[in-house]
Amino acid sequence: MSINKFALLFLLFAFCQLSAQQYADPEYIKVTNERAAKIVEKLALGNKAKETAVTNIIAQQFRDLSKIHDGRDTDIKIVKDDASLSKDKQNEIIDKLKAEADKSINELHKAYLEKLATQLDEAKITEVKDGMTYGVLPITVDGYNDMLPNLTVAQKKYIYDALVEAREHAMDGGSSKEKHAWFGKYKGRINNYLSKEGYDLNKESTDWHKRLEEREKAKKAK
């Protein structure tokens, strides 16, 4: 084994040690608990035991997702820093690392929803999903409906279903940027769909922002 390979293995071992310390760190656990508690507070469950149980489930999900994301990103960095590997080989290994991480995240996602279902009904689980994704889905749905008041039932359904799918991915994102990127990706699909349906979205958007400005002026004038 080359010296370079030994160095890479040492870096990986060092990361695992640091990782274990981080996820057991009381301050890190406190931060994830507080993030989860903010989501649970808005559920208004009215049951202290249930609130605690749900908070623990959500907080643990945050920690478990971080382990997968951090492990994936560190492994990818090690591969990119390995000068002995060709670019094609690096990309091949990186694609495999991403696929393995995605598989782990999908399994975690399913198990997480099953745990939530032991404490919450479907409506409350939806609220948790929105809480984990900054409420982007309902805000975006309202935005499309306001911008395009003549949307058909079928068009509204397409928009909502696409954003629901985006939310399922976004709630597993490792950062705010990654979560918003999922919604951005699906909003692109929605806009393409609406364009094919005959909407001039540039014009619709311009007209909508004019209406928003007029509403704001009317509010201030009162």
Q: Could you walk me through the main structural features you see in this protein, from its secondary elements to its overall organization?
A:
It is a single chain. This protein is mainly α. Helix content is 84%, strand content 0%. Helix 2 crosses helix 3 and helix 3 runs antiparallel to helix 4. The protein starts with a helix and ends with a helix. The relative contact order is 0.07. About 2% of the residues have low confidence.
Summarize the structure.
This protein is mainly α and 222 residues long. It is built from nine helices and no strands.
Backbone structural class: mainly alpha
Number of strands: 0
For the largest beta-sheet, the strand count, sense and barrel status come to: none
Average pLDDT, rounded to a whole number, is 91
The sequence of SSEs as H and E is HHHHHHHHH
Proportion of helical residues: over 70%
Please mark out the parts with pLDDT under 50 across 5 or more consecutive residues, or reply none: 6-10
Q: Separation of termini?
A: 77 Å
Task: Tell me the β content.
Answer: under 5%
Give the radius of gyration. Answer: 22 Å
Helical segment tally? Answer: 9
Shape: globular
Key structural traits:
222 residues, mainly alpha, 84% helix
Summarize the topology:
Layout: H1 3-24, H2 26-41, H3 48-81, H4 87-117, H5 122-132, H6 136-147, H7 153-170, H8 176-196, H9 201-221
